[in-house]
Amino acid sequence: MTKAVRVHKVGGPEALVYEAIDLPEPGTGEVRIRQHAVGLNFIDVYFRTGLYKAPGLPFIPGNEAAGEVVAVGPGVTNFHPGDRVAYYYNLGAYATERNIPADKLVKLPDHITYEQGAVLMLKGLTVWYLLHKTFRVEPGHRVLIHAAAGGIGLLACQWAKALGANVIGTVGSKAKAELALQAGCDHVIIYTEEDFVARIKQISRNELCDVVYDGVGKTTFPGSLSCIKPRGLFVSFGNASGPVPPFALTELNNHGSLFATRPKLNDYISKRSELIEGADALFSAIIEGTLHIQINHAYALKDVAKAHIDLESRATTGASILKP
């Protein structure tokens, strides 16, 4: 019997119920995976609380995981039992096993662990599209990365630095500042102790940043806009502190003809060719040593409520996983 975590009614961490479920045989074009590690992400909190609407109730949270293929459905020829795979896909990852369309899977290189694979597909691919597609970071660019000690933040700092950028990160504590510096930040701002907008102006000598990557949301807005040079880009890709409130487009004009975007990963990997491009770039960056994956927290799947409490209270750094 497959075990899974389901949400029957949106709410707090107590809404996460660990229980047995029936899992049918994989259908046409599907693969069954025995999951070895599941990625923990803030988007899971959004669905649990109802900020993001699930298709229906009950639902199984989670979008990324890694494991081994144990069965394939009719029509699947490119995956076989025993293959090591990882994915980013729709809700359903908080489970010991699941069925998933084969075209959403990528094969894991031998030297990348299940644990690494489980945190790469959402966080890693997000960093890939943010730095290579949404705004192509190049040598000399000055970038601001909020939540620089988080799972996405640490990867983004490393990759942006490797691309030649001047990297500024914001964090909430001295301990997190050390992690951000180790990940390649040239400057780290502890936002609980100083005004990040004033520090950006000081660090940049009022030249500001080419791009701001903001996965925090409510508490960093509209300050983020004041950190961007004229015709620069505001990338709002998450809302860990709550959604960015509605604002008038004239705010972009007032801050220097800024551009703004609210991207999501699905729109950058909607074609399989895009998924493979991103995964290949990501795996290559790890193989070459450009990216180092920091998995600082691991929880048993049945203890997922504790994992959500830690995530929401900012007690985690780097990436976190659930072990089915």
From TrEMBL:
Keywords: NADP, Oxidoreductase. Residues 11-322 form the Enoyl reductase (ER) domain. GO terms for cellular component: cytosol. It is an enzyme of class 1 (oxidoreductase). InterPro entries: ADH-like_C, ADH-like_N, ER, GroES-like_sf, NAD(P)-bd_dom_sf, QOR-like, Quin_OxRdtase/zeta-crystal_CS. Transmembrane segments: none annotated. CDD domains: QOR2. Its EC number is 1.6.5.5. It comes from the Bacteria. Gene3D superfamilies: Medium-chain alcohol dehydrogenases, catalytic domain (3.90.180.10), NAD(P)-binding Rossmann-like Domain (3.40.50.720). GO terms for molecular function: mRNA 3'-UTR AU-rich region binding; NADPH binding; quinone reductase (NADPH) activity; zinc ion binding. SMART domains: PKS_ER. NCBIfam families: PRK10754.1 (NF008024). PANTHER family: QUINONE OXIDOREDUCTASE PIG3-RELATED, QUINONE OXIDOREDUCTASE-RELATED. This is NADPH2:quinone reductase.
